[in-house]
């Protein structure tokens, strides 16, 4: 029984899917985080939410040794384009908001259950 549990644990690959806490802090002494939930659908689409906005459209793919997703959300004034890749057990991403003239790099950790 222990061997079966160990084999399952070793074969389980990390996934970009799930709940994340995104660190959007600008200053180290002023924490600022927002939630991200990603569902990687079998047809290659991604759904969920980021920064309390529903993902409107998105795609994911595993290639070149990593799993990444790109998706679009909105704040009502314009689109936010986000890309994120799983690096180890951390999500590393960036968000571009053309209408706000910014690109923001960020990291995320799994949200504790």
Question: How would you describe this protein?
Answer:
- The structure is a single chain.
- The chain is mainly β and 113 residues long.
- 9% of the residues lie in helices and 56% in strands.
- The chain has 1 helix and 9 strands, in the order αβββββββββ.
- The protein has one helix at residues 2-11; strands at residues 18-23, 33-40, 46-50, 53-54, 57-63, 66-74, 79-87, 90-97, 102-110.
- The protein has a 9-stranded antiparallel sheet with strand order 4-3-2-1-9-8-7-6-5, with no helix packed on it.
- The longest helix has 10 residues, at 2-11.
- The chain is globular.
- It starts with a helix and ends with a strand.
- Mean pLDDT is 90; it is low at 3-11.
Q: Characterize the largest beta sheet: strand count, sense, and whether it forms a barrel.
A: 9 strands, antiparallel
**Head-to-tail CA distance between termini:** 26 Å
Number of strands: 9
Main β-sheet, spatial strand arrangement: 4-3-2-1-9-8-7-6-5
The outline comes out as globular
Strand portion, in percent? over 45%
Question: What proportion of the residues is helical, as a percent range?
Answer: under 10%
Derived structural class: mainly beta
Calculate Rg over CA atoms: 16 Å
> How many helices does DSSP assign?
1
pLDDT under 50 segments (min length 5)? 3-11
Please provide the ordered H/E string of secondary-structure elements.
HEEEEEEEEE
Rounded average pLDDT: 90
Keywords:
9-stranded antiparallel beta sheet; mainly beta; 9 strands; disordered N terminus; single chain; 113 residues
């Amino acid at each position: 029984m222990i061997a079966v549990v160990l084999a399952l644990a070793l074969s389980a690959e990390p996934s970009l899917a799930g709940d994340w806490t995104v660190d959007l802090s600008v200053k180290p002494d002023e924490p600022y985080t927002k939630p991200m939930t990603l569902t990687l659908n079998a047809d290659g689409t991604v759904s969920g939410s980021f920064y309390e906005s529903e993902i409107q459209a998105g795609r994911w793919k595993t290639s070149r040794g990593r799993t990444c997703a790109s998706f679009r959300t909105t704040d009502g004034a314009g689109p936010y384009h986000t890309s994120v890749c799983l690096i180890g057990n951390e999500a590393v991403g960036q968000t571009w908001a053309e209408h706000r003239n910014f690109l923001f790099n960020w990291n995320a950790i799994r949200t504790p259950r």
